[in-house]
Amino acid sequence: MAAIDDIITSQDLQLLADIGFIAGSRGMNDHANAIFEAIRALRPEQEAGFLGSAMIRILAGDPGAAIKELEKAPTTVATRTFLGIALVQQGNVPRGREVLEAVVSTAPDTPFAHLAETTLTDIQA
């Protein structure tokens, strides 16, 4: 049997993730979720499937479901950033702030740190 990496390349997965994000941004959540579940099944050790599913849940106004997804995800700067955002949206501002501040301190000058900083600023406003 061929290795999954020989059948589905990283570029293929990136394209699938892009399609999933487009579907989610257009309110096609069932389609987006199916794509991200497939990505998670193909690459369970990577963040993309978890992150995509969580982002769809955040956009749908269900931060609790996003938190559950992200707590199962590999710990990366991306998953921590969106975990912090979901926690804030859920109303757990102290824990969300803690997670976002950790992103800023561990990954300064990255897009995720900038997103975390923006979220932290919005909390204080």
Topology, element by element:
Blueprint: H1 4-7, H2 10-25, H3 29-42, H4 48-59, H5 63-72, H6 77-90, H7 93-106, H8 111-124
Helix pairs in contact: 2-3, 2-4, 3-4, 4-5, 4-6, 5-6, 6-7, 6-8, 7-8
Which features does this protein show?
2 domains; 125 residues; mainly alpha; single chain; 78% helix
H and E string: HHHHHHHH
Structural class: mainly alpha
State the helical fraction.
Answer: over 70%
Number of extended strands: 0
Percent of residues in β-strands: under 5%
Sheet with the most strands, sense and barrel status: none
Number of domains: 2
Shape: globular
In words, what does this structure look like?
Helix content is about 80%, strand content about 0%. With about 120 residues, the protein is mainly α. It folds into two domains: about 10-65, no CATH class; about 75-125, no CATH class. Helix 3 (about 30-40) runs antiparallel to helix 4 (about 50-60), helix 5 runs antiparallel to helix 6 and helix 6 (about 75-90) runs parallel beside helix 8 (about 110-125). The longest helix has 16 residues, at about 10-25. The model has no long low-confidence stretch (mean pLDDT about 90).
